[in-house]
What does this fold into?
Amino acid sequence: MHLGVSLVFKPVAHHSSAYALTVSLRDRVLRRPLGLHFTVAQLEQEADEFHLTAWDDELLVACLCLKTVDAFTLQMRQVAVLEERQGKGIGQQLVAYAEDFAREHLFRKIILHARDTAIPFYHKLGYTAVEEPFVEVTILHQAFEKTLTD
Ligand SMILES: CC(C)(COP(=O)(O)OP(=O)(O)OC[C@H]1O[C@@H](n2cnc3c(N)ncnc32)[C@H](O)[C@@H]1OP(=O)(O)O)[C@@H](O)C(=O)NCCC(=O)NCCS
It folds into this structure.
C-alpha cells in the first residue's frame, strides 16, 4: 500500500506541449540509459497512439503509450515513471488508469513487451508471460498479456 500525493491522470494529444514532456521523460528514463535516442520517424509513428499521463500538479511524473493492435487489443508501450518517484505506487496507478481507459474504449486485452527489470512489476499487476524472452532495443524482454474483465 502506497500513500502519497493525489495525482491527475489524463490522455494528452500527440504533438502537444504535454506530449513533448512525455518524450523528454521517456528519453531520460527508457532511452538514454541504453545509449539510444528517439528519431523523428519513431515519434511520427506514435501519432495514432493514445498517450496517457500522470501529473503531480504541473509536474509530469509518469506516462505510457497505447497502440491499437486490432479491434480488441492494445499494446502498452513506453511505461516510464520519473526516477525519483519510482517505487511509490505511481506505475501501478497509471497502468490501472490505462486499463480503465482501454475498457472505456471497448478493448478487451492489453499486450506488452516487458524489459527484464520490469517483469516482477507486470506479474504483480496480473499480467501473464506468453513467450520465451527475446532481445529488443539491446536488452532482454518478455511478452506479457492481460485480458480485461469488467
Ligand atoms: C517499472 C516501473 C514502470 C514501475 O513503476 P513504479 O511506480 O516504480 O512501480 P510501483 O511503485 O507502482 O510498483 C507496483 C508494485 O510492483 C512492484 N515492483 C515495481 N517494480 C519492481 C521491480 N523492478 N522488481 C520487483 N517489484 C517491482 C512494487 O514493489 C510494487 O509492489 P507492492 O505494491 O507490493 O509494493 C518504473 O519503476 C520505471 O519507470 N522503471 C524504469 C523504466 C522501465 O523499466 N519501464 C518499463 C519498461 S517495460
About this structure: Strands lie at 8-12, 50-56, 59-70, 73-81, 109-115, 128-129, 134-136, 139-147.
